[in-house]
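My current task is to audit a protein record that another person submitted. Alongside the sequence sits a line of tokens, each denoting a local backbone shape. Where you disagree with what is written, explain briefly why. This is what I was given:
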Amino acid sequence: MLENLSERLQGIFSGLRGKGRLTEDDINGAMREIRMALLEADVNFKVVKGFIARTKERCLGAEVLDSLTPAQNVIKIVLDELTELLGRTDSKLVLSSRIPNVIMLVGLQGSGKTTAAAKLAWRLKQEGHSPLLVACDVYRPAAADQLQTLGGEIGVRVYRGDGRDPVEIAREGVQDAIDNLRDVVIVDTAGRLHVDEAMMDEAEAIKAAVKPDQILMVVDAMTGQDVVNVAAAFAERVDFDGVIMSKMDGDARGGGALSIREVTGKPIKFVSSGEKPDSLEEFHPDRMAKRILGMGDVVSLIESAVKVQQEEIEQEQAERMMRANLNLNDFIEMNRQIRKMGGIAKLVSALPGGDKAMAAGQVDEGALDHMEVIINSMTKAEREKPDLLNGSRRARIAAGAGVTVSDVNQLIRKFNEAKKMMKKMMPAVEDMQGGKKGRKGKKGRRRRMGLPGMGGMSMADLKKLQDMMEDK
């Protein structure tokens, strides 16, 4: 999503960087190209008009025209305005003191409401809440069955009622949550293929019956400019509080994501980019703007690594990692934790220029599996002491894994690079773990980062990591 827009904008800025000074004509030309890029990305034309006017006014100031680095200033201005367009600050989901909190999801049919409801329930459960899902879509065939299945997969109870009256089901669902000590109720309402009076009347009736603390509109990111009209209609009738942008992993142009905040004034609270329960993420406007401009999203990458650190490992293994004394078993573990962070594709796409590398097919998403097959062809002694791997052993491993000796040599090279990087990261690891002795968990085990010391890695280290994981 938004890859084409990102590529177009980066191309425009590349042209500006080659000029020592910018004239008014240069800026006017750049603004025309940016306008076309936004319109081609299906951004609402009124939003584009306002964005270009604000950006152009700032770019024509002395800040740019009299600067020694005009291109950098233009990029900064575009980044600021793009962030403003998406929402200047993060808008997190804040639960009230009411028990149970009621969250109502609205949106058109096919926008992904039911899936979003389950993902939100999973997220709240991970945060220590006890959610209840309420199936109020009594029109779409098997809608309640779908929610029941999703709820079963994530261990969250689903209330279905009599399956006939959505307003009564919603009301009974809240009472069921009270009776069973559930602190959050997520109401999945029905949608239609387009906005109509019956849907809006029902949404208003459910809102009046359960008095939700939050109303979230689920929007399909692939809808395009029409999403603005749909959102405006819902804003007028049910006055929703925020947006869940679904299907951000699709291949549509994604202009709706850039339009909805400006037109409705409602913030994007979550984005969903996959089918798994953990694929619902908080929306950060500044990070999205940087990714669109090809600057990567290393902060989110670090946050993913910190989440993975919660897993415990044996003290002996932790000590070895802290001393950067890795063996190939540890290398497999590191690779598996990269998968938990979303896989190599997500890791690389968070680096500056990563989206471009992915689009160009320069990253082998199966590289980690390839490495693991080779390591599993080694003996226990060879995995624990890689120095034993002489020429004859490498030939035997290559034959067992169905690869060439060159592939085995490449793996060992990457492993040695990882050991060197671990030594660089040790200060950050020690700092996060409370000093050289580390911080112990309930069973005397030490904790470590999923991708150790990510917080202490420089940009050069991150790019080096990207190179390591690519099959050259």
